[in-house]
Amino acid sequence: MTDPQREDALIAAARDAALRSYSPYSEYSVGSALGFADGSVVTGTNIENASYGLALCAETVAVAKAMADGVRGGLEIVAVTGPADKGGGAPITPCGRCRQVLNELAQLGGTDPLVLCVGDTETRRVRLSALLPHAFGPASLD
């Protein structure tokens, strides 16, 4: 498990990232923060496109940033935040695509990160393997 201070810092980083969301179509700002074993944090926010299918989720943006910087392992914890005024303020979980993208990074380092699904007043803590059971990843290709 992680310590509460680290969780709070990641949640704050994800909320800060959500402030930079480009979501003019859905008006659904999402932020994500990835915490790594070395203490580094990489954030992402959702980026929409007029061609809806080309939108990028916050988690996918964060993973792409990490991979572009050469990070290939050590993913320990992920925080995902959504807008407090949507969905009754319930905790937000990564979509299916993002679960798969997170799994790729996690499998490269042999980790099963804790995912903080953050809502207005509640945070659900769940392992990625519980969100994406029987996942397909790099090991599946061996």
Fold and architecture overview:
By secondary structure, this protein is α+β, with helices and mostly antiparallel strands. The chain has a single domain, classed as Cytidine Deaminase, domain 2 (3-Layer(aba) Sandwich). Helices cover 31% and strands 20% of the residues. It is built from four helices and five strands, in the order H-E-E-H-E-H-E-E-H. The chain has helices at 4-18, 58-68, 96-109, 128-131, and strands spanning 31-36, 41-45, 75-81, 114-118, 123-127. It has a five-stranded mixed sheet. Strand 1 and strand 2 (41-45) form a beta hairpin.
**CATH superfamily assignment?**
Cytidine Deaminase, domain 2
Q: How many H/I helical runs?
A: 4
pLDDT average, as an integer? 95
Strand content: 15-25%
Structural class: alpha+beta
What series of H and E elements makes up the topology? HEEHEHEEH
How many E-type strands?
5
In this structure, how is the largest beta sheet organized?
Answer: 5 strands, mixed
Q: What is the molecular shape?
A: globular
Stated plainly, the CATH topology is called Cytidine Deaminase, domain 2
Radius of gyration using CA atoms only = 14 Å
* Poorly predicted sequence stretches spanning 5 or more consecutive residues: none
Tell me the name of the CATH class.
Alpha Beta
Work out the helicity level.
25-40%
> How many individual domains?
1
Fill in the keyword field for this structure.
globular, Cytidine Deaminase, domain 2, alpha+beta, 4 helices, 31% helix, five-stranded mixed β-sheet, 142 residues
